[in-house]
Amino acid sequence: MKGAIFNALQEFVEQGHGYQVWDDALSNNTLPSHGIYTSTKQYDDSELFTIVGYLSERLEVPIPDLVRAFGVFLFPLLMPQAPQEAQNAPSLRAFLMMVDELIHVEVKKLYKDAQLPEFSYDDHIDDKLTMIYQSPRKLCFLSEGLILGAAQHFGETVSLSQPVCMHQGGEYCEIEVVFNGK
Predict the structure, then answer these.
(1) Is the dihedral of CA 37, 66, 14, 76 positive or negative?
(2) CA atoms within 13 A on the CB side of 17
(3) 4-17 as b/e, with b when 16 or more CB fall inside 10 Å?
(4) pLDDT tens per residue, range 37-54
(5) In whole angstroms, what is the distance from residue 1 CA to residue 46 CA?
């Protein structure tokens, strides 16, 4: 995982819970990088999972909720880096339909070693979009948070559910997005 994600996680924790909580997360865990993250360097996912596990216990917030909240926080940091077509999407639904075939393609051009999830879509219902999430990293809750952050960006309200999830034994995750309007 790129160091930029760790830097964003640090900002998220420090803004929401204070510098000391982040410092404790680093000092109370054995991390190969010793908690020093350069935005362009790649770090093992296990470091992120260790920090998130610690924060979950320390803050008494379930991991899915913590990771989802981080995704909401992360979205406005990532959006300016999105391709212009995605930034100009007319709606949240249109934006989400661009994730796999436009946004992730552009990310891969910039970061060849990026480990991005794959999405396929079931969009046959007008007010609902099912995003089929596949990734060995199992960061579906981060995707949920990014979707919620995107909904805020587009001024739309949505409801999310996951009837199938890898954390519950599924081979993939189904993130159902119900569009409730503006």
Answers:
(1) positive
(2) 19
(3) bbbebbbebbeeeb
(4) 887 788 888 999 999 999
(5) 9
Q: Is the whole-model pTM more than 0.90?
A: yes
Helix, coil or strand: residue 178: strand
What residue has token string 């119900």?
178
Long-range Cβ contact pairs of 12-15 (< 8 A, separation 24 or more): 12/69, 12/70, 12/73, 12/74, 13/55
Structure tokens at 56: 């979950």
Amino acid occupying residue 151: A
Give residue 58's identity as a one-letter amino acid code. Answer: R
Decide: residue 152, CB within 10 A, 0-12 exposed, 13-18 middle, 19+ buried. Answer: middle
Q: Classify 159 as helix, strand or coil.
A: strand
Percent of the chain as helix, strand, coil, to the nearest 5? 55, 20, 30
In contact, 1 and 43? CB cutoff 8 Å: yes
